[in-house]
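Supplementary notes (optional reading)

For those who missed the lab, this is the record we used. Protein: Type II secretion system protein H. Length: 150 residues.
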Amino acid sequence: MNLGKQRGFTLIELMVVLVIIGIASAAVGLSIKPDPLKLLRQDAERLAQLLQLAQTEARVDGRPISWRWDAKGFGFSRRQDQGPGLDRFKDDPQLHPRRWQSPSMEVHVEPRQRVVLSAEWIGAPLNIRLSDGQSSINVQRSAAGRVQIQ
């Protein structure tokens, strides 16, 4: 029986190749930087959609809806259909209170006033600037009620 040289790779050669592939993929993974505006942009997009939805709800229902916010989150409210008090949309699948995704959020509204979405089709333009301390994004509502991100 002739036991000539066998062809193939040794275990050490395979391990060296795997280590090289691991180092190369780690270098590529570290060089890809996350988008610093990602969370802020997501907050702005979600707010724009919900403001548009709340505006539509106010027009359909006939009762104004207020938007309130703080550093932790935001929510909508309107007067109860029957009796005193406010409906804060806690059980509403879309307009329920939400937390900001950005860790530190600053909100500036121009003109400085309470944000109220009424049943009127024409209203005052509104600019909401969202800032995470490093970057900012504007959510603007036109006089016709169209909401867009700038």
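If you only remember one thing from this example: The two ends are 80 Å apart (CA to CA).
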